[in-house]
């Protein structure tokens, strides 16, 4: 053993406290350096998070974009021909288009089976959306959230049209990708509110059902939807949906560690996904009757 090594060994064995103190000093330096790194990262995170919150869209903006997506509009005649014609005669299909499926002779059970099967296909498609894989890049990647939400609500708007056609609401919704009329936007907002369990939405849909039961056709229902009194209800629903969306999205982002890991939109949809939301609307439309 060399003299240098002997000296080191003797010093180490003779003064173990000094060696331990050296390790503690080194650990303290590592901790201080880590705190500095995390502090800088935390500042950057907070700044990006604040920018994210300030850029959140309103629910009206998401709805407007979703309606314009290619494929969002569902043609009533084509849809009823496809889903009813699969198991019923052409005469029943034609009568369903000219009146309603119920008036054409389909039982409530038949209509519900068709609705669930049709919605099941769209539900499976939503699982393939990009939000299922989360958002790479942390909060900086959260700028993609509105696009993913728009896509998701595009599927919900398709479901709204399909259910309204099956349950006798013939011309309540007119989707034009270039311009959305007030009545259509109001009808969609009410039904989305029903899907999200907003109390005022259930009341608004029940009000429309009462008007229809009293003999009002869809033209008169559309007039009611465009009226100021109904717009007050629609605005209340829109504000509530905007609050829920913002609270859930910001909560998902704020709750993530640094760096933020994906799944933000996936977390937003969890618990109130396509299948659950569609079933709620189906239930309310069944309750409203024709």
Provide an overview of this structure.
With 290 residues, this protein is mainly alpha-helical. The chain folds into 2 domains: 1-54; 59-288, no CATH class. Helix content is 71%, strand content 0%. It has helices at residues 3-14, 16-54, 59-67, 76-85, 90-98, 108-126, 145-166, 182-195, 199-213, 218-226, 228-254, 264-269, 274-288. α3 crosses α7 (145-166) and α6 packs antiparallel against α13. The longest helix is centred in the first third of the chain and has 39 residues, at 16-54. The relative contact order is 0.13. Mean pLDDT is 76; it is low at 2-13, 130-144 and 256-265.
Brief digest:
This protein is mainly alpha-helical and 290 residues long. The chain folds into 2 domains: 1-54; 59-288, no CATH class. The chain is built from 13 helices and no strands.
Radius of gyration: 29 Å
Uncertain regions: pLDDT < 50 for 5+ in a row? Answer: 2-13, 130-144, 256-265
Class from secondary-structure proportions: mainly alpha
Write down the overall geometry: elongated
Distance between the termini: 99 Å
Return the average pLDDT rounded to an integer. 76
